[in-house]
Predict the 3D structure of the following.
Amino acid sequence: MKKHQKNAAEDLLDIVHLNEGIKQVVVIAFHINLMALNAILLANRAGKIALGFGVISKELRVLAVELTQLMHALKAEAHDSVNCITVLLRQERRRLLLTAAQSQVTNHTSALAGVIESHAAYRDEQVVRIKHLRNELLGKLMDARRICQFGIAISRSAKIEAAYGGSFSQQLKEVSTDFDQNIHAILPALDVLCNTLEDNQ
């Protein structure tokens, strides 16, 4: 396999992994959102002693929505990347066919050389565009990591607030533990995706 085709195939594989990771994060963010809604209701039932817990639950809900939106934006950019890679592969196949044809003909070789050159120039533009899209994807993944790290800090605060929940303390503690476990589950998935994109830069 030629160098550009090999690189494009690797890029395509990375995007497939990225899409799988995005689905995983969206599912967890959906659970966090639902848990946060239930936690807000629970905090309302508990009254004044769980005011802080209610505020934190609302923050976690906002975080889950923000993370979901970011994942949808990532998915759209991943789709653009797949389109670019597909065009690159098609263009490179044509260029290779033209190059093979050039070696077998004796007439119009200069015209053929011009076409091959324009295909090569277009390929180079696509390679730059794909690299730019990879950097954009990586930037969004880093943003998602920052949101998760903030979520981990908030879920720790939820645990502290749960301790002051009086008769609701045990229920609030269970909810805060679920928050913590779910947010911690996102971070390794994002790390794998970041590493994949960084390794093939």
In short: The CA atoms of residues 70 and 103 lie 49 Å apart.
